[in-house]
Amino acid sequence: MELKKNPKADLENRRGLYLEIGLVVILVAALVAFNVKSYDKEEKEAIERVASEEQEEIIIQTQQEELPPPPPPEQPEVTTEFEVVEDEAEIKNELVVNAEVTDDTKNIEITPVKIEEEEEEEDVQIFTVVENDPEFPGGMEALYKYLRDNIKYPQLARDNNITGKVYVTFVVERDGSIANPRVLKDIGGGCGQEAIRVVKSMPKWSPGKQRGKAVRVQFNLPVSFNLQ
Questions:
Q1: Is 194 domain-assigned?
Q2: Which domain does 164 fall in, by range?
Q3: How does pLDDT run across 185-207, given as a tens digit for each residue?
Q4: Fewest C-beta in 10 Å: which of 5, 95, 206, 214?
Q5: Domain count across the chain
Q6: What is the pLDDT of residues 200-226, one digit of tens each?
């Protein structure tokens, strides 16, 4: 005997309907769950906000009243008492100056005292650069001629064939005289001593001038020693 299935009991025909019903149920459940979570979140934030507002303290600013400064201490009054005396009463410790005009005092003449200005101290500064340099009488050519005519070649330097230049420095004073000669560079053999001797024997120079006034000037001079 062959069994026949009741068409009403066949669920395959209603599969699509059940699927749609299930999707609707899932969607409704998701919406309900979302609304519940949103409500819980808003309620939680509201509770926290109320709690924080309750914790705020109310600060009342108070202004301190400035007290007036204390009054200055009272100073005792100083009173001066004057004693009235009669014209004929004798006053002690009275200073009396007697000035009598005589013939001698009439002829006294008051003459103003003249204060002489102290002379300025001599300028001791030594210049190295001036407006007008000091000059040997007759100029530089005359100076070199004077050195050639007066230098005696030291025998020690001649024997050892020593030649070269000795540099000498000295001060030309305000009157043109030579002071403090010394050797800056020597070549040996007695040449430095001979150069100093000749420099000391030089005649007076024309002094250097600064702003029209004679001043002390440092002068450097090369002295040549050559064998012929």
A1: yes
A2: 139-218
A3: 999 999 999 999 999 999 999 99
A4: 95
A5: 1
A6: 999 999 999 999 999 999 999 999 998
Measured distance CA(206)–CA(123) in Å, rounded:
18
- Residues 127, 210: contact at Cβ < 8 Å? yes
pLDDT digits (tens, 9 = 90+) for 19-66: 888 888 898 888 877 765 555 666 666 666 655 555 555 454 545 555
Check if the beta carbon of residue 136 is closer than 8 Å to that of residue 205.
yes
Q: Does residue 131 lie within any of the structural domains? A: no
| Residue 199 belongs to domain with CATH number | 3.30.2420.10
Answer yes or no: is 171 within a domain. Answer: yes
Nearest-Å Rg of the Cα atoms of the chain is: 63
- Would residue 185 count as lying in a domain? yes
End-to-end CA distance of the chain: 167
The residue whose two tokens read 């004057």 is 82
Selection from 219, 227, 216 nearest residue 191 by Cα: 227
- C-alpha distances (whole Å) from 3 to each of 6, 8, 9, 90, 99 are 10, 15, 14, 175, 178
